[in-house]
What does this fold into?
Amino acid sequence: MLDATITNLVDVVRKSAYPLTGAAQDYDPLMNLIGDARFVLIGEASHGTHEFYQQRAEITKRLIQEKGFTAVAVEADWPDAYRVNRYLQGVSDDQTPEAALLGFRSFPGWMWRNTDVLNFVSWLRIYNDNLARDSIKVGFYGLDLYSMYSSIAAVIDYLDRVDPEAANRARHRYSCLEHFGEDIQTYGYATSFGLAQTCEEEVISQLREFQLRTNEYFQQDGRLAADEYFYAEQNARLVKNAEMYYRAMFHERVSSWNVRDRHMAETLDQLVAHFDQQGQKTKVVVWEHNSHLGDARATEMKRAGELNVGQLVRERYGNDAVLIGFSTYTGTVTAASHWGGSAELKQVRSALPESYEAVFHQTQIPQFLLTFRGNNPAIKALRKPRLERAIGVIYRPETERISHYFDACLPEQFDAVIHIDDTKGVQPLDRSVSLDMGEPPETFPSAL
It folds into this structure.
């Protein structure tokens, strides 16, 4: 039997919710809320839930078609995502969407090599191919920083083509990192405890030289595409920030988390600035985990001294940014049991009674949209902090409360939430996930 307080709360949510029935107009209230915003950040409550990927893609399609969004930025490594971008622009050797996704081979490969992402990339390519010749094609970009060695190779490859002498200088500077092979965690440990000198000065110097010689590179090669230069410059920036991240990793979790999320927010800013310089007012959809995209100030992350992308984007862009979260009550999820483990289809336990997910389940609406702007009575009703679930690439149901819940004030964390009561895991494109652990896996060490 529910007490009167919970019953009233459930009633308020039920009356405020927009049921999602699969109709074309389901997300009209969300489109109205977004209005002319330039940034729409769409989260996920796990890294392996089919419905989150599928519905996020459907919302993004509408934003592209109806509101002129031209970039999708995701929680993935810059070089891997840029391979997809080249395919979407029609300038790569990849002949199929699945080939374009081959860059996502290391753990956890199922995050981006799954059937939902494959279908979305297929749709994007068809959409771009049908645009008028002078139209801006939709791009696909990675915001994360785990690709240090791939990014080093990309910087040197670019410089080999436009400035061989600079390429040799880059090799010399980056060789500082190669003393550890590709075991970047060893580098982080050794430098953090004074067992080796850091490469901080070298990676900063390389980025600075790259930026100082921008005009020279353009003058030397008039055929140089602005996007290709930007791709190379961002790789140099990533190496600088990744070096800082791995040094911070062995000090405290807060430091490394903040370095990573600042990098992702900085990458988003650089992406927008790059395209704005080309005469367009860029609109970007961001796909990441709820823990990165919901405003950290509305969660227990604030008490821990952590910030995130959602907070940084809100602080910079205000109402020009809309933050959207997802939640689920039960079902299945594709996740691993430990770092480097194989993808498993795991049963998701029913949400804890004191959680937001449990309140949403009690509405008995299978899936719905709830908005948190305007005079919606659900804002006040849900303002009291509750537990919220977060499943990353690892799911440990045996330690559910400790591993996967945190306190949050949902109406302040997001501008809207989509609840799907019963969900199922994504379907990986690969039967087994690659265990290439040369660099730490995406989402390390937080699993989000």
Summary: The chain has 19 helices and 13 strands.
